[in-house]
Amino acid sequence: MTTDSFHTAPRHRVDDPASLDAFLQALEGVSALGFDTEFVRERTFLPQPGLIQVSDGQAVWLLDPLALGDDPGFREALAAWMADPGRVKILHSVGEDFEVFDRVCGEIPDPLFDTQVAAALLGKPLQLKYETLAEELLGVQFPGGLGRNNWLRRPLPEPWLDYAAHDVIALPALKNELTERLVAADRLDWHAEECARRVAQARQPVDSLLRIRGAERLDDEGLARLVTLAEWRDAQARERDLPRTFVVPDPALLEIARRNPTVPEDLQAIDALKPGAARRFGADLVACCRRPAEDWTRPAALQPLDREARAEVKRMQALVRERAETLDVDAALLASKRELERIVRGERPDWLDGWRGRQLGGLIR
After folding, report:
1. Residues 271-296: pLDDT tens digits?
2. Which of 110, 130, 131, 163 is catalytic?
3. Dihedral angle of Cα 128, 129, 131, 136, to the nearest 10 degrees
4. One of 56, 167, 177, 341 is an active-site residue; which one?
5. What domains can be seen in the chain, in order of their start residue?
6. Is residue 207 flagged as an active site residue?
């Protein structure tokens, strides 16, 4: 496609059974498709899907999950596409898209081709934006800045639909260009491994405790209380469909676990806990502290690092940066500080058996 044709590609709305059938028939034999999602999550526990964009590189289909959400044919077809091993799903930085697809159809994109990861393996910044990559590789300019809009609004303004279409129309072309460059650099296998690892990680449940920053600073008794508090907060957030921090923010949860209050009035001394939350949840929070997790051991990821261990992390970081410069990749792509801390704590991440472990060689124990 020419740069102009990216902007003038046909755009189809999919919001009823007839348009859904036409969409499925049009793309029945296509083996690689670009996907993106628009959603709202500022005040809810789970992302609220507002739009799902699909492109074969020649046209764009805008799927309306609000209109199609009760149509079993929509959910089943999307789930089949997500799980089809013969259909590559192209996205730029999957992020919360995994959660959106899982909520809409119960599946996530696999196999995945992440254009942001591909670009990072070719020396681009790890957090490179889609618009920047499209301009650098394809010479096409797309406007940005509308991702935070209220995508649950109906009808959606035409400029928003243009923006949504632009977000996927270039993905197939970017995949083709990036694939050629990855093959030339002998890094296509690296990319496939990274994408598969992201899919596998998305399928693993996240420990509620590990979501809380600063948890490692608590002693074992405080952590046992924090386990119960974190699980209680997750349940409340899901039931009320609120972000976790809207129920009780992390700093307040940490302080409650540390102080171990015995009566709700003790919570008044915790500045990070809003008075309304203290009144509404005070009895529950105290009750959580009275029943700390049993048969529980501190996760390796929360083992405190002593001075010697912190020095070892710094040494490894320097070696990773040096190797990353040689490979011309972002050091965080090769091994982040958090990943190095896991190794120092005695864990052995699975990525050490892959391309990153091979490139680091004997630098990482």
Report:
1. 999 999 999 999 999 999 999 999 88
2. 163
3. 0
4. 167
5. 3-202 (3.30.420.10), 208-290 (1.10.150.80), 305-363 (no CATH)
6. no
